Fold this sequence. Notes:
This protein is α+β, with helices and mostly antiparallel strands. Helices cover 21% and strands 34% of the residues. The chain is built from seven helices and 14 strands.
Amino acid sequence: MPTSMEKKSKTSHPDQWLSELPIRSEPEGFKPEEMLFCDQCQRKSPPTRLKCFYCGADLKISAEQSKFLKPTLRKLEEWEKGFNLIYVPTEIPLEPNTTVQAAKLLNFESAAMQRFFEIQKSLPLLRLESLAEAEVLSSRLKELDLKTKIVSDESLRSDIFPRRLRRIEFFEDKIVLILFNADEIAEIHFGDLAAIVVGAFFERKIESTESLKKKDERKVLESSEVSADEMLIDIYARQDSNGYRIETKGFDFSSLGSEKSLLAKDNMKTLSEKLRTFSPDAHFDNDYVRIRAELSKIWEVSERNDSSGVIREGMGKFKRVTGPAPRSVR
């Protein structure tokens, strides 16, 4: 009587299992002509890379080769200098599938991508490590009829703050700016006022007290939280990119005359409108609060934990007071 193995050998061809394997529709790897040559180490890297696989040098990439690239989209540290990819809205209506394709390319959620488009304002989409990476993504987005602009961290000069003002005097053809805690004044003539930007500081402070009984044992005794916001105004002259800043605290609103209110918040609104009236051709932007959530996704809020140290309360009893420095967005 034949065994089961003998029956199987009569009904099954030895190579039949090969027919059940999936067939690849594309070749494995890349063609030799598609590889990228590194001028520094004289080796070739896959065309999906912006930097050499071996030495890390930047690779020269043609327009045809750029279609293979896969940007890493690495999140940069706050101290690193990068390149910001800015979305610029246009009047051209977007195709229905544009949001989905753009979200996939930029590693966004579709709902977040749709929100960027609905705001209809120039906003940062990504902060990238290299100019080449930014240019590749900009080119890909252009294929989707999305206009972008690349702005480097160096050109933004975010480490240089506008000079703080103590007072503003309005004249018929100019404004006189008195600087805060400095024997210095500046003048901006009617046609030289380029931009008026209304922003805000948002602060959130949390302070907690912990008991220290054992080496690794801590117990929170009490905790308090304080949050506040403060309006500010930045003004920029055409020949001065540093700008000037008006903060609620320490500013003299007497130049508002009869329009001056008892509340500093109301005075800031009145002052911003007065500046806008003084130079109606200057760019006026007061959308910060509306787009704050979108901005913070790319330009993140900084947060720091500080400690007031260990305080001794008696024999063998200690406590530690900790809390973050003001958390602010501007």
